[in-house]
User: Fold these one by one.
Assistant:
Number 1:
Amino acid sequence: MTIYQTLLEDDFARLHPMLQQRYALPVDEPFFAQGVMHQIKSGAKWMRPFYTLAAKMRFLFPESGEDVPFTISNTCRVLPSGELEVLWERTFYFPQKPRHFDARMTIDPIQKIVKDYLGTPALFYSDLHFTVTRAGTLVIRSGKQRFVLSCFECPMPRLLEGRVIVEEGFDESKNVFTIHVSIHNPFIGRLMMYAGEFTQQSK
C-alpha cells in the first residue's frame, strides 16, 4: 500500500474513485498532471524579502495571478531506510518566470500524521492531518510546525505558523481534479492561496 492508503486505512475507500486512483501512487510510477490555477494570491508586499528567499528554495513565491498554467508531479520512492516517501513537485508558469513549490512526505503510522518537509532544500516542516468528507473529497490540515536549519529543527511559535487547509476533489461534470489551498497566519494574514483544476497526463 502507498503511504496515503496506510494512513487513511478504511477511509481511503471513501475517497472519490478518481482520487483513489490519483493517490494510489505505485513506487516509481509518477502521477503527472497539467492544469490551470484560476487564482493565485501571495501575501503582503512588505514580506517580499521572505518570498524571494523562499522562492530560491522552491517554496513560496511573491507572484499573484489569474489563469496561470501549472503542472504537478507526485512520485513515490523507497528511501535507504526502507521508508516510503512521496515527492511533490509543483510548477506555476507565470509570464515572467516559472515558480516552484516542492515537498517531501512520509508518514508516522502511530500518530496518524503525514510528515511534510517543504522546499528544496527543506525550509519548514509541518505535521499534516488527512480526512475524507462525506462527498469523497480529501481535506488536509496542518498541525505542529518547525523551522528546518540544515540538520537542525526547532519548534515554530504558533504566532509564526502558516496554517494550511487543502481541499482536493474531482468534478465529474468537467472530468477534472479540483484543488484549493490556503496558507494563513493568524497575525500576518494570508501567506498564499491558490485554486484551480487539473487533468492527468502522460509524462
Number 2:
Amino acid sequence: MTASAAPRFDPLDPLGLDDLLDDDDRAVRETVRRWAADRVLPHVARWYEDGQVPEVRELARELGALGALGMPLHGHGCAGATAVQYGLACLELEAADSGIRSLVSVQGSLAMYAIHRYGSEELKERWLPPMAAGETIGCFGLTEPDHGSDPAAMRTHARRDGSDWVLTGRKTWITNGSLAGVAVVWARTDEGIRGFVVPTDAPGFAAHDIHHKWSLRASVTSELVLDEVRLPEGAALPGVVGLRGPLSCLSHARYGIVWGAMGAARACFESALEYATTREQFGRPIGGFQLTQAKLADMAVELHKGVLLAHHLGRRMDAGRLRPEQISFGKLNNVREALEICRTSRTILGANGISLEYPVMRHATNLESVLTYEGTAEMHQLVLGKALTGLDAFR
C-alpha cells in the first residue's frame, strides 16, 4: 500500500480496530451507543449524585426492546447475537456508566444464563421471555456476608421437606436485588451446591438495599434474606450440581466486563483528550506539552490493546474455544488498565477531574467495584498462576 492510499489516522481508533467489525456488528454498536447517549448520559451524573435511578424499570424495558438482555442467548425471546456483538454492547453501556452495564450483565449473563443453561424447559418458558423483554428483572445470589472469594464455604442451605425445598440464608452485594421479580440463588444441599429459581414474592424472601456506597451509585445493590422459603421441586436447576454451575455463570459475566471496562476507559480517555486540546496554561493548550502527550499516548496504547484483547476473546467465544483462564486474563488486564487510564485522565483534568461535570471520577470510583466483583484481581492472578504452573495456590 502506498502512503497516499493509507487511511487517515483516527485519534479515537488509532489501530483501525473498526476494520474488525462487519456491518451487523457496527449496527449493534451504534444502536446501543445512541440509546446510551439519549437515555443515560444526560441524567447519569444526577443519578450518581443522588444514588438512585428513578426510571430503572423503564430503562430495563427499553433495553429489552433493543435486544440487550440475554443478548447472546438463543430462543425464548433472546436475541441470539454473537459474543462480539454482546461485548460491543457492554462497552457502549459502560462508556455511559458501569451501573447500567451491571444491570444488563446480571440480568443476562448471570440470572438468564443460569436458567438458559441449567434450567428445565418449564423454567425457561416461564422466566426467559419476560426477562428478555425487561418486564421481569432478575438477580443472582452467590456472595454471602462472610464468603465472597470462597463460595464453596457458603452457609445458605436448602433442605428437602416432602416434595418441596426449603431455603434459608443470606446473600449480599446483590445487583438488582430489590428490583428483581426472580432470583437465582445458590445453596448447599445434601447433594452438593445447587441453584434455585426463587420468585421474589415467595413468603420468607426479602431484599434490603445497601446504602452509603461511593461506587456504582447508579445501580441497585441489595442484601437478600431467605427465611424458610418454600419452593417446589421444579424450582431447582436440574442441569448442574456443584460449584461448576455458578462459576460458569461468573465466567460468562466476566467476559462482558472485559469489554465494559474498556468502555469506561474510553470515556475517560476521550474526555482527557478533548480537555487537553482546549485547556490552556502558560499560553497554549496543555496537550502541547510533552508530559501531557506522554500520558495520552500511554493511555491510548493500553486502551486499544485492551479493546483488541476483548475482540480476540470474543472471537474465541464465538468459535467455542474460550477458556475460563483466558477470561481471567482479560478481566485482570482490562480492569486494571482501565483504572489506570481513569486515574491518569484525572491528572490531565486537574481539579476539574473530580467534578461530576466530567465523567472521569465517576468512572474511576465505579471501576473500584468492577475490580473486585466477579472475582478480585488477586483471584484472577491465582487462576492464571495455577494455569501457568500447574500448582494450586488457592489452599
